[in-house]
Design the sequence.
């Protein structure tokens, strides 16, 4: 087993009116773990992420990050703990240049000189150095995803949440993203939501399957893939 | 527009401003100079909204509130203190503090953009109506009678520390023009600082700004307070230019005018709103001397034309045209070269001074 538990949810539930998007989830993530989160559309994966990052206040239950109950915390406070998130729909500073986007993230928790060197380092890691001066809203979908990834890693977080980081990428881009994720995992714990099974096989360690807001099964990719219930709910509901 | 070119424009603006500051009183008549002081106050007011709206993305329909509060606070404090030096300080601080309090409720209450516009405008109109009802002798703050819709006479500025040495209108012009230049370059500095870049980031994507760790509510509140302080300073200059403060500073016409200046001059630039205010101020005062066309009609037509045809405003449109022309020429030149340079357009286009 890896290190101590860094993220824990206890009975975490999120209701939207009558819709139960997340239903009493007990979840643990250990230090330096790379966890994949899969599940059919509408299973509640993104909602679960939003509860972890303070974008949504859970209806019931607790979110504990490094022994700190963050139920009432704001998103910027959770970011201040060293948590980085890439959202499902890319959220970037549209009208600003690639390097300005990354600088803004790097500068938040680092002094000016360190932020500058982090920007160089990050541009290199996400392979955007050539287009550093280009405005983000003119880039391809894959490149925008990388800008967002760059913003996440330039802040040097110890916990990284990635919601469908490879969506809309070409095969080559997916390979590079997988490589980048393994590299991030050297210094951070990760939770990655993905639909692309091939991609998950590339990176997966332990896989958690969500179904109707609850955890269906949690095991290695091979066990999960062989599980008949998973095959049924996942393949049966899968739209992508 | 890249940083180097932007800097050379800033130097040019600085030189033109300095020449104007020193030269205008030498060549212009006294009446024109006094009028110019009022125009400068308007330009500073436009600058404050250009900062808050153009860079911070905060659509404030009631920037006139802080302008009017600054003007009234200056006059009331000057009458009570028997001098104007501390009155100026008080006016700026009161305007900024009021913006901070209003901002607290709006930003920490997560009021949406549209409601923010409505609330700020409503506050200005409330002040308009309140101040109009203060005509009796019972409405006074210290020694200052508020005077209802007639307003109060504004004591002219005096030399700091010497209340009996009152400035001449030419001297007031120097003060006003210097305040505009300092305000302008202060804003340029601010939007280039970490704080200003975060303000722009929040304008671009509030959620992302939060997720990378910025307290969006606090950032907006601070920017709003700075904008309020600048508008308050404009109010002080206005009181000096006109010599009188009336509830009209809070009225709907003024509130709308500020927005039109910024739309015409161009959001996302600082010089745009300044030029927009100067241009429209003189357009309206030249129209004021004739009676065949209604001023408000002209303003309305200008607004519609700009919103439909020049939505970015004059300055950004000119920069775009300029860049496109240069870009095309640049491409011709590059064809002859081996290496093709990439990425000439950057975010700095929007940071234009
Ligand atoms: N703000 C909201 N208001 C109401 N219902 C919501 C809201 N956000 C999510 N839901 C509902 O909650 C459920 C879970 O949605 P969520 O986006 O978390 O699913 P997901 O697992 O991320 O799906 P996908 O794979 O399509 O991204 C869905 O039924 C969705 O319609
Ligand atoms: Mg999702």
Sequence:
């Amino acid at each position: 087993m890896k290190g101590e538990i860094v993220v824990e949810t206890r009975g975490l539930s999120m209701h939207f009116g009558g819709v139960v998007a997340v239903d009493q989830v007990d979840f643990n993530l250990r230090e330096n773990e790379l966890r994949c989160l899969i599940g059919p559309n509408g299973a509640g994966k993104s909602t679960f992420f939003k509860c972890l990052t303070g974008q949504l206040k859970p209806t019931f239950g607790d979110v504990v990050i490094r022994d700190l109950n963050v139920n009432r915390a704001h998103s910027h406070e959770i970011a201040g703990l060293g948590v980085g998130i890439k959202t499902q729909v890319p959220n970037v500073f549209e009208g600003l240049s690639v390097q300005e986007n990354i600088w803004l993230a790097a500068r938040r928790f680092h002094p000016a000189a360190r932020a500058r060197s982090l920007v160089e380092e990050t541009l290199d890691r996400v392979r955007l150095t050539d287009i550093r001066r280009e405005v983000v809203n003119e880039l391809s979908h894959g490149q925008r995803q990388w800008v967002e990834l760059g913003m996440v890693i330039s802040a040097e977080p110890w916990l990284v949440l990635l919601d469908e980081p490879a969506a809309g990428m070409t095969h080559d881009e997916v390979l590079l993203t997988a490589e980048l994720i393994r590299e991030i995992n050297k210094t951070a714990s990760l939770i990655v939501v993905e639909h692309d099974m091939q991609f998950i096989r590339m990176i997966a360690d332990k896989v958690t399957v969500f179904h109707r807001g609850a955890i269906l099964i949690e095991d290695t990719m091979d066990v999960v893939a062989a599980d008949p219930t998973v095959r049924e709910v996942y393949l049966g509901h899968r739209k992508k | 527009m890249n940083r180097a070119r932007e800097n050379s424009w800033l130097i040019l603006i600085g030189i033109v401003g300095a020449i104007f500051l020193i030269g205008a009183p030498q060549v212009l008549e006294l009446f024109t100079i006094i009028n110019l002081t009022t125009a400068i106050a308007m330009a500073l007011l436009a600058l404050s909204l250009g900062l808050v709206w153009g860079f911070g993305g905060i659509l404030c329909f009631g920037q006139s509130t802080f302008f009017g509060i600054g003007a009234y606070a200056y006059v009331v404090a000057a009458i009570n203190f028997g001098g104007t030096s501390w009155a100026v300080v008080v006016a700026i601080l009161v305007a900024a503090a009021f913006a901070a309090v209003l901002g607290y409720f709006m930003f920490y209450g997560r009021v949406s953009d549209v409601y923010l516009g409505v609330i700020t405008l409503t506050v200005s109109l409330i002040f308009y109506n309140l101040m109009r009802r203060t005509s009796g002798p019972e409405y006074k703050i210290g020694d200052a009678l508020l005077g209802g819709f007639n307003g109060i006479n504004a004591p002219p500025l005096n030399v700091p520390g010497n209340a009996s040495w009152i400035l001449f209108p030419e001297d007031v012009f120097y003060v006003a023009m210097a305040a505009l230049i300092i305000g302008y370059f202060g804003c340029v500095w601010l939007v280039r600082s970490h704080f200003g870049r975060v303000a722009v980031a929040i304008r671009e994507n509030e959620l992302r700004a939060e997720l990378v760790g910025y307290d969006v509510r606090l950032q907006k509140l601070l920017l709003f307070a700075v904008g309020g302080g600048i508008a308050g300073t404009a109010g002080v200059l206005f009181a000096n230019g006109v010599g009188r403060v009336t509830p009209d500073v809070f009225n709907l016409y003024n509130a709308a005018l500020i927005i039109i200046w910024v739309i015409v001059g161009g959001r996302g630039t600082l010089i745009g709103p300044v030029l927009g205010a100067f241009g429209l101020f003189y357009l309206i005062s030249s129209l004021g001397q004739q009676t065949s066309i209604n001023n408000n009609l002209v303003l309305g037509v200008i607004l519609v034309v700009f919103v439909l045809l020049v939505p970015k405003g004059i300055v950004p449109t000119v920069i775009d045209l300029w860049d496109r022309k240069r870009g095309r020429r640049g491409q011709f030149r590059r064809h002859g070269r081996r290496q093709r340079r990439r990425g000439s357009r950057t975010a700095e286009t929007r940071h234009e001074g």
Summary: Strands of chain B lie at 140-141, 144-145, 152-153, 158-159, 162-166, 244-245. The CA atoms of residues 83 and 163 of chain B lie 5 Å apart. The pocket of magnesium ion (ligand 2) is lined by residues A 45-46, 88, 163 (CB under 6 Å).
